[in-house]
Give the backbone structure.
Amino acid sequence: MDEGENDVGDGLTRPSPLLTVDCQLSLSIISLSDAREIFKVVDENRIYLRKTLPWLDEVNSLDEQISYISHCISDYELYKGIMYSVSSDGDIIGTIGLNSIDYENRACGVGYWVSEEFAGKGIATRCCSRLIDHCFNDLNLHRFVLEASVENIASCRVAEKLGLRLEGVIKDREWLYDRFIDANLYAVTKPEWSNSKSP
């Protein structure tokens, strides 16, 4: 774990507020001081992000961005999840987070986005890999889930590159502005992940 180990009892640990991915990338727990920078990136990438993410209409102002970040901070304090800003050489280029942590069943689900300028460079894959390591090695979780729209080819490729198992297709998983879309459900367990890392 990089910084800030937080034992939540019963041998469970809250996610670290800071994770180093590599010499270029770092993940930092989202804070209100990030609101203006994140909103700027969202606003500049609104058309691009709208193709796959359903929440763009809920973040149309800095105040709405602040409200969302406040919600994320509350979730962290209640042990429900964590949202990180993704920084490349110190500049925020997206977010990644554990949208839900089920400590009882030792499972979690991930969500993320990066700006169009940084898409296709393996950033989401590297950040997800670091987060999976953290979940399994530091938080004692057992199952990691990634859901991606069947139309979101880039995220499906992230899951495949990470070696996640396609468990099935969820029919009409999400309302994307004007239609329902199906999603691929990918997952990996701690033993599977450990085996994939073995030489």
